[in-house]
Amino acid sequence: MIEDYGTLHRFGPTLFKTEITDECLERLQFSINVATEKFNQSLAGNIVDERALSIDAETENEILERCGLYMTKMAKQPYHNYPHYAHTSKITGIWVNFQKAFEWNPPHFHSGDLSFVIYIDNPIDYELEAKHPTQEGTSPTAGVIRFRYGEDHALSDKAIDFVPSAKEMLIFPSWLEHQVFPFTQEGITRISIAGNVDVTKRINID
């Protein structure tokens, strides 16, 4: 009998998935409704409607608290230390994406130390997408967000795909390559907010 002494699988960057509160979602929706400044010229996306976003202090604090929790976990610190990291960080850029059918984000990375994406609404019917003729191959990817790190090797994964839901927030190192695949359903819009964070308090990771 072969004994299982455990599998070690901690290499590379860490992704952190959490949720925003209903109150934060409402405040972000208000900010989106009044956003008018086009932001396409600063972004990699092949998306027609991308706008700069302004948020209130309460919303910024909630976003930074979640980034602080990410940093606390990375530094192997007790949970109650997360406000310290949140208070030593700042959002350096934030924008909203209105993704429609056949629009996409190519592989890219961000500036800053951390980046995040918050999904405000995701009306994609993934069962319907799976039936589209473009999804009959071995790698159906309609509507997913993919993170990629490392090289192609046997017995090694270099990518992870997410199917996002409304209110979900993903936090990751800004240098981590990622992309957003297109979907095919006409007449719907997936709304997401993305941003970058500078961390003034360095953390040590053993």
Count helical runs: 4
Count the E strands: 10
Shape: globular
Q: What series of H and E elements makes up the topology?
A: EHEHHEEEHEEEEE
Which structural class do you get from the secondary structure elements? alpha+beta
Order of neighbouring strands in the sheet with most strands: 1-8-5-10-3-2
Q: What are the salient characteristics of this protein?
A:
4 helices, 206 residues, four-stranded antiparallel sheet, 19% helix, six-stranded antiparallel sheet
Structure description:
With 206 residues, the protein is an alpha+beta fold. It has four helices and ten strands. The strands form two sheets. The protein has a six-stranded antiparallel β-sheet with strand order 1-8-5-10-3-2. A four-stranded antiparallel β-sheet has the order 4-9-6-7, with no helix packed on it. The protein is globular. The protein starts with 15 loop residues before the first strand and ends in a 7-residue tail after the last strand. The model has no long low-confidence stretch (mean pLDDT 90).
